[in-house]
Sequence to fold (153 residues):
Amino acid sequence: MAQYNLKINGQTYKADVEPDTPLLWVLRDSLGLVGTKYGCGIAQCGACTVHVNDSATRSCVLPVSAVGDSKVTTIEGLSEKGDHPVQEAWNEVDVPQCGYCQAGQIMTAAALLKRNAKPSDKQIENAMNGNICRCGTYHRIREAVKVASTKTN
Fold:
């Protein structure tokens, strides 16, 4: 076991885990931040997406030892009151059905809009590609990203 000081959602957390423990399991099992979901365990579905230094990252395959001094943001840290422009757009467009993939979808969309405030449809599709929605709400996800882009600076 090794001890890690992790910068997550603007706070420092201590975790005493094996170096190869995926960040996802540290977040969920060690720190109780359960908004980030387990989907596939092989970085193919996007349910586990978090931001590492503002980049969308699949936490199920990122060993905690690779995090270092990076700043990690989970869905819980995206917005204190749930009023991030992407979260507002998700509600406005009524995206979720079952909701399981939504944290990963939202985190991927927020990372896209942080680096490209006014993405084209093709850019949205490219960025969101690989985030699987079992309910098939892809058209609403794309629409919500477009709506969110009108709410960001």
